[in-house]
Amino acid sequence: MLGMRRRYLAAALMVAIPFALDVHAATQGQEDDVPAARAGILIGEGKIDQALVLLREIAQKDPKAAGLEAQIGKAYYEKHSWGDAIAHLEAAVKQKPGDAESNQLLALSYFMNGKLREAIPILESIQSQLPHPDATGSYLVGVAYLQTHRYDKARIAFANMFSIPPDSASAHLMLAKMMIRHDFNEQALPELMRTIELDSKLPMAHFLMGELYLLRGKAEDGVDEFKKELEVNPMMWLAYWRMGEGYARLEKVDLAEDALKKAIWIDQNFIGPYVMMGKIQLKKGNPDVAVEFLERALKMDPNSQDAHFMLGQAYKAMGRAEEAKRIFALTQTLRNREKPKLESIQ
């Protein structure tokens, strides 16, 4: 799971990280070096393999050329070859410790390669040089601390990211949210308990607690938490939606429908309650009503696998065999399309 999470971040990290450091120093001395300058242009254009060919030619002629290791490391970083990038960027930093870009890329390469303990001090050093903490840097530091089980430090990093006091209820809530996002569900529970202990009226605290209870199969406890969340914010459609699912699991269909209707009335453009209502109506033996909800859901999200599958079941129950067959085929197509995406981040 850790590897999948890191690779999921890769696309975001390929965007220029706004650490606002002077990276001009990384290329100083190369302005008059035509092959090196050409390699830099190729890297900027995304022609990484061509750049590497040119850089290897330079290395054969002059393996100690100024800035060469930095350029090769950057090329491998852009190619997502983290191990190769690390080897060259480490050499670049040894040659020139003040090379800001190489330090930054080395930290990110460590992060993506799972060497989180090596990444943390560089990321923190970069953050300390900025007049204001950078959100991306704080996030990466927080994730690295989270994945290495240093939760107090993770909380401080995320608090810095959102400019909130690190010992506040909001900071514990933010850590819990990040824990859930990164599949640290068991560790998130005590953080939520601490949040509620500090501020029982903080929005989202009871909602996330309810989510955890649903994940653990404790629907009744989940419903109780969603009720508490709605006492804080009666307009929170997400709480009504998840309450509806909790009631459905408890076989309290009327209460489930009532909660889901409220979710829809507050926000008519959110797909979740429509799909859940479709499931409930199908279970009640009302496939025609289920179709109305599920077709509406698909207008909002044509790629929803759940909505397609349930719609196929509803069509089948109504005797609309050809339409059901078409929808089931489309559901399988969507699953096959999603599978390569999941494999690519594992």
Question: Can you lay out the helices and strands and say which pair or pack?
Answer:
Layout: H1 2-13, H2 34-44, H3 48-61, H4 68-78, H5 82-95, H6 100-112, H7 116-128, H8 135-147, H9 151-162, H10 169-181, H11 185-198, H12 205-215, H13 219-232, H14 237-249, H15 253-266, H16 271-283, H17 287-300, H18 305-317, H19 321-344
Helix pairs in contact: 2-3, 2-4, 3-4, 4-5, 4-6, 5-6, 6-7, 7-8, 8-9, 9-10, 10-11, 11-12, 12-13, 12-14, 13-14, 14-15, 14-16, 15-16, 16-17, 16-18, 17-18, 18-19
How would you characterize the overall build of this protein?
By secondary structure, the chain is mostly helical. Among the domains are: 1-115, Tetratricopeptide repeat domain (Serine Threonine Protein Phosphatase 5, Tetratricopeptide repeat, Alpha Horseshoe), CATH 1.25.40; 269-346, Serine Threonine Protein Phosphatase 5, Tetratricopeptide repeat (Alpha Horseshoe). 74% of the residues lie in helices and 0% in strands. The protein is built from 19 helices and no strands. The protein has helices at 2-13, 34-44, 48-61, 68-78, 82-95, 100-112, 116-128, 135-147, 151-162, 169-181, 185-198, 205-215, 219-232, 237-249, 253-266, 271-283, 287-300, 305-317, 321-344. α17 (287-300) runs antiparallel to α18 (305-317). It is flat and about 75 Å long. The protein starts with a helix and ends with a helix. 40% of the residues are buried. Mean pLDDT is 86; it is low at 10-32 and 340-346.
